[in-house]
Request: fold
Amino acid sequence: MDSGTPERRLPVTERTRHRRLREQGSLDRDQLDSILDAGFICHLGVTVEGSPMVVPTVYGSDGGTLYFHGSVASRSLLASPAATVCATVTHVDGLVLARSVFEHGVNYRSAMVHGTARLVTDPEEKLAGLRCLTEQATPGQWDYARRPSPKELAATALLALPLDEASVKIRTGAPDDGAGEDARLGLWAGVLPLRATWGELEPDPLLPAGVEAPVHLAERIGTPAN
Ligand SMILES: Cc1cc2nc3c(=O)[nH]c(=O)nc-3n(C[C@H](O)[C@H](O)[C@H](O)COP(=O)(O)OP(=O)(O)OC[C@H]3O[C@@H](n4cnc5c(N)ncnc54)[C@H](O)[C@@H]3O)c2cc1C
Reply:
């Protein structure tokens, strides 16, 4: 368990206390920030009319708050401010291929945030939250693209979830059965790494001739995606 420095240690609550696979847990807030900064999609778990619903959704993190957006008609977003939610961000780094099927696993970095989300109504905070969300996925795009109109803003719900109660788990390295009895089986074992990178840009076929891709997009080609 990585505890981080005292001033950057995540508080442990009854909800965030790691119970299983505790050695993969981390209390380092810098690792939380790095996992959140590396992604832009999370799975938001919320109870809607008594049933659990886990919704893949775009997020933005400013270090203290996680922002989610969607239609004002979105059932999962509308249900969120009234209840406790859980947002999970996952990055898969590789398949851990052991000698035994039992010891197979995944190398990963994941973060879980628990709490109660707040519907953002202040116009300035709403714009700042939407900017954070847009910039998380595509840095440079908020200043490049047209900003939301008042009508578009009215049709958009923005939720803010504080990063006060969060947990981190990370697995790295080789399979766990290299020194056990199964090592004598003579089977190959190791890790099949997974590396996501941004691909070549695909211009909209309706783009008029002469409209070049902006630098902030061209520069991302071939760079790591998480
Ligand atoms: C890609 C991926 C694949 C996985 N596959 C499996 C699998 O097949 N089988 C399996 O048993 N486990 C798997 N895990 C680990 C799994 O996510 C849980 O950590 C583990 O199963 C413990 O679950 P639990 O229900 O006992 O939670 P508990 O240990 O009771 O959870 C307590 C608290 O710990 C924190 N926590 C738990 N898990 C995570 C996490 N992953 N990230 C951040 N915080 C966490 C949360 O705050 C949670 O409320 C996988 C993880 C990832 C990222």
Observations:
- Helices lie at 29-38, 75-79, 123-137, 141-144, 150-154, 215-218.
- The longest strand covers residues 84-97.
- The domain at 6-196 is CATH 2.30.110.10 (Pnp Oxidase; Chain A).
